[in-house]
Amino acid sequence: MKHEKHFFRLSVFATLIIIGLGASQIGINNPLYNSAEAAKRQESLSNGILQAKNIISEGKASFYSDEFHGRKTANGETFNMGNLTAAHPSLPFGTWVRVTNLRNGKDVVVRINDRGPFIKGRVIDLSISAAKEIGLIKSGTTQVKLEALESKPSSFISG
After folding, report:
1. H or E element: which one contains 24?
2. What is the largest CA-CA distance in the chain?
């Protein structure tokens, strides 16, 4: 009976520690959380500065052919090859992504509105317009870097 009380207190204490660590990961009552940095980040977003959230991946990009123009995309939109959009296997629909061609340094900002590519080794399928922006049309595929963006890029909206 005496050992059961100690075990109960220990398990309650361990549970409280786990809850506290979980809360600290999201910035609740965490003395290590840098609120000045968070405020600066929020200020830059509200000023319309487009910042990269993180590099998602690097790999091969390809583009949709015009045979898909007018068809429905995975999110229900009608595909328009003139818009700066792309297909990605897992990013949420509506995510803005900067795609940089690693061969020539050109980049384009696209919105994810479809699923794909379905060819092994490829990380993104771009609309023809987006592919033209980064010089992808002639080669058909190219090595790219993908970066998710923190906010809607108002200066790049076309689709």
Report:
1. helix 2-25
2. 78
Per the structure, the complete domain to which residue 136 belongs is given by: 52-156
Tell me: cis bond preceding 92? Omega within 30 of 0 counts: no
73-98 per-position pLDDT tens digit: 999 999 999 999 999 999 999 999 99
C-alpha 134/C-alpha 112 separation (Å) is: 17
Q: Note the pTM of the prediction, 2 decimals.
A: 0.63
Cα-based torsion angle of the residue sequence 97, 102, 138, 131 in order, rounded to the nearest 10 degrees: 10
Number of separate domains in the chain: 2
Per-residue pLDDT tens over the stretch 2-33? 555 554 555 555 554 555 444 444 344 433 33
Residue with tokens 């963006």, as numbered in its chain: 149
Q: What are phi and psi of 109, to 5 degrees?
A: -105, 125
Answer yes or no: do 6 and 65 share one domain. no
Residue 114 in contact with residue 79, Cβ under 8 Å? yes
Q: Is 114 helix (H, G, I), strand (E, B) or coil?
A: strand
